[in-house]
């Protein structure tokens, strides 16, 4: 692994700076205020803090009225703007695939001299932990069981039959497959390109440089970053709220029902205390930084996921799981285009799509600044094609395997077993579904403990990764921010999740995600065009005579290796020991 460089993308010396960076005398964080151990943007940080504080105060003061308002707003957005969410995410997939498989796919993030900052395994571990962790744990059993009883109108199968199980897995694959990762990939690509290839601040405003130029440092840029902060914070609060609900239920179910030791109460007070405790752990992790904390915990997460997945594959219905995976993929791939545009208006009034697909798309979009910026921060040195294939395909396929193991085991219990998992889900709800399923197989207490531990570690990695991202946004795009500032945002995220959970429950969390996702979806649609402009400009420079002359000068030096691809476009320049080792 290459040594981490905290100034990556911030006007470093080299070929990329000379030919590709815009002519501007501005630098990331050049107007920041340094005080009390903080390094903050003079507009984005205080305005974001005030608005977040007002939102929290209103939620607390209104009480039940706030919960009712959240429910109304969630339904209103879903019913009136669901079509826009569906259309937008399909556009993102097409655009991302175009960037990967067109001539732009050979462009390297960071420029031709860039080196990978993290190994492929560490890279995959971090992006997957940030992108899907808590959600997969929460919905991997409950969602297939829901569709098993309430078959989406698209499929028209009879409930609680084999056909319903097949439809349930395909619909779940659709929600956790290529579409969400296309959103993350598009955002990550745009942020990585404009930061590493153009030397602009690692914030969302930089993506609009082709349209705004130096105005990204003014109020247009401030507004873009403020919307990004809100989308990140509330999208993250949704995941943290879901995660802590499942941790609470896991401790209660495993400790009381399975082990017979002590039954932990399941209520907002206990969940608030759990958020405080786990946020404390996340604070320690984020204080340790990207290498010392986040990367290490992400790797541990991946190992725990493999352990739990392998355990269930062994003690569970192995052949049924594998068959579920293959059959689910077949139905998913066969219907992916139609599912992507299915609004449900003519089938079931759109209620299922609003409750699930529109919520998911709004959640993914709201979470995309967080996941996308985190992916961007760790993706230097990879080509556009490598980036897209890594972000889009591998995590999506792993998600289908995970969902087949856990959702498939629950469906096996419903179709060929005693049906206890489904009965417990109907009685106690989503948060207990996974633990009820694990109880039906050998060593259920052990697997339940492991599942609870995994939710906790995902909680921690989501919180500390999110803290790093919001730090970038509120520090003017700096890559290295003071430890006190990272700690501050870790605590703030936990507080917002706790207050939303206490003030309006899961509906408040879902509403926060889908509401902040709506204006951000518009920003992402504009971003498709600005990224295209940026890549087109990069390609033109790579094909220009000035670049060719510079490369020729480098080629004439000793111990310099110039790598080209296909049409002789330069893709890599190595110097010193790196050049020698490539021979």
From TrEMBL:
Instruction: Record the organism.
Output: Haloplanus rubicundus
Name any one GO molecular function: transmembrane transporter activity
Superkingdom of this entry's organism?
A: Archaea
The terms describing its cellular component in GO are: plasma membrane
Q: Which PROSITE patterns match?
A: BCCT
Q: Which residues cross the membrane?
A: 43-62, 82-101, 121-141, 178-196, 216-237, 269-290, 302-326, 358-376, 388-412, 432-460, 487-506, 512-535
* Keyword Cell inner membrane part of the UniProt annotation: no
What is the protein's name according to its record? BCCT family transporter
Write one Pfam family the protein is assigned to: BCCT
Localization per Swiss-Prot or TrEMBL? Cell membrane
Q: How is the protein disposed in the membrane?
A: Multi-pass membrane protein
Write the record's keywords in alphabetical order, separated by commas. Answer: Cell membrane, Membrane, Transmembrane, Transmembrane helix, Transport
For this protein, the record's InterPro entries field holds: BCCT_CS, BCCT_transptr
